[in-house]
Write a structure and sequence with these properties.
By secondary structure, the chain is an alpha+beta fold. The chain has helices spanning 15-19, 33-40, 89-92, 95-110, 181-205, 207-220, and strands spanning 24-27, 52-55, 61-62, 68-69, 76-83, 116-119, 123-128, 131-143, 149-156, 226-231, 237-245, 251-255, 260-263, 267-273. It is 26% helix and 30% strand.
Amino acid sequence: MSSDPAAAPDVPPFTRARAAGVPVTAVASTGSTNADMLRATDGPAPLPDLAVLATLGQTSGRGRLDRVWQAPAGQMLAMSVLVRTPLPDEVRGWLPLVAGAAMRTAIETVLPDAPVLVKWPNDVLIGGPSTAERKVCGILAQIAADGSVVVGSGVNLTIAEPDLPTPTATSLLVEGAVGTAADLADAVLTVWWTALRDAVRALAGGGPAAAGVLAATRAACGTIGRRVRLELPDGAVVLADAVGLDTAGRLLVRGDDGVESAIAVGDVTHLRHD
């Protein structure tokens, strides 16, 4: 796992996370925590299930569709978790959403009064019907060569309003969170990892516990019940109503013709609350 301490903030101590048992490796800087974790799964010393790599200095972060995710050094938390727990293929499709629901829980610990929601398939937004929804976190799940899954997350911590990358982005600081970047990162990582660990264990066990995780994830998904604009991989643009999630975590939409379909891949824009 690479680092470049000269070009980044100090290595965050993650005192709270370590005390909670989070197996975190922290670095001052790296290109991409997901890329590092994917390489490490093929190394001579196999990493354990739910191992974490985290930094406040990610320089080449990537999101879905190879999009760049940039933030000033020391003001964003990038972290990746290695999921080795065997999961049914259908359940694996839920991991970005489950991780998003876990992040929603984590953000609510530092912003207890903020309306936080998961946007299908992998974003966490702050906002609601009466306020603009803005992205505070992105999730990216990638399958490693050994079949494990790396779940990465980037959270805007203390980026000031003028420095946000787009008008549709926000940060914990902008939304009213109090504390240094290191303190906020520690709090978010601790709760996110714990919630994700518990969800993965429940999904692996199946039965009522797994059903409960999926139900909670559906409830956290603010895309359901919204009018949406879908940009599909073939370039098509569809306006539809998002009506639910199917058993594989695909978005169920109903077109203006009344026909329902399941969307596995696509970009979603929320248009309005009904």
